[in-house]
Amino acid sequence: MRETLVLNASFEPLATVSLRRAVVLVLQGKAVVEQARPGLRVRASAVDVPVPQVIRLCRYVRVPFRRRAPWSRRGVLVRDQHRCAYCGRRATTVDHVVPRSHGGPDSWLNTVAACAEDNHRKADRTPEQAGMRLLSPPFEPTPSDALVLALGTYGREPLPEWLTPAVPASA
Q1: What sign does the CA torsion over 89, 90, 93, 95 have?
Q2: Is 111 exposed, middle or buried (0-12, 13-18, 19+ CB in 10 A)?
Q3: Who contacts 85 (Cβ-Cβ below 8 Å, separation ≥6)?
Q4: Cβ neighbours for 62, distance < 8 A, ≥ 6 positions apart
Q5: Distance (Å) of CA 11 to CA 7, 15, 112, 158
Q6: 3-state SS string over the chain?
Q7: What letters, b where the CB count within 10 A reaches 16 and e where it falls short, cover 9-29?
Q8: Model's pTM, two decimal places?
Q9: How far is CA 125 from CA 20, 42, 71, 135, in A?
């Protein structure tokens, strides 16, 4: 499971890694723990390290410019925090605002998280045709925001405010 966020030396989100990889980077002196999970530690005979939630590399790593976050069903559910875009209940499916049969693409701006009931009720129609209203419009997260959102904080210590992605206001 990838559950530790790796920041560049400039505090730019780079990737998520496993707990094991994060601890190795810290022990090798290549990274420092920026935020740890409260009360949890990794212990061995000569090691006592807090369980990292966010680590920062000690040296800057140059990365190619990433213009867009790749679209995925899981990404849409995470972006919308597993909340239905029509009723606000727990979402388990992804709905196309303009159905694929009508030429709607698999894209950030055409897909929203939806509960199975609303997805079935909307069926092969647009929200206007089905008489349904979106609670908030879909948006395209930046690559950095997509990484931070992918961590998810359900049932865990929240990320620091300075790292929380800027989610557009509801319409």
Answers
A1: positive
A2: buried
A3: 91, 95, 112, 113, 114, 134, 135, 136, 138
A4: none
A5: 5, 12, 30, 17
A6: CCCEEEECCCCCEEEEECHHHHHHHHHCCCEEEEEEEEEEEEECCCCEEEEEEEEEECCCCCCCCCCCCCCCHHHHHHHCCCECCCCCCECCEEEECCCHHHCCCCCCCCEEEECHHHHHHHCCCCHHHHCCCCCCCCCCCCHHHHHHHHHCCCCCCCCCHHHCCCCCCCC
A7: eeeebbebbebebbbebbeee
A8: 0.60
A9: 46, 52, 22, 17
Q: How many residues does the chain have?
A: 171
What digits encode the pLDDT tens for the residues 118-143? Answer: 999 999 999 999 999 999 999 998 87
Residue labelled with tokens 């950095």: 144
Instruction: Tell me the longest C-alpha to C-alpha distance in the chain.
Output: 65
* Contact residues for 60 (Cβ-Cβ < 8 A; gap 6+): 8, 9, 10
Looking at this protein, which amino acid is placed at residue 86?
Y
pLDDT digits (tens, 9 = 90+) for 57-108: 999 998 777 678 888 898 899 889 899 999 999 999 999 999 999 999 999 9
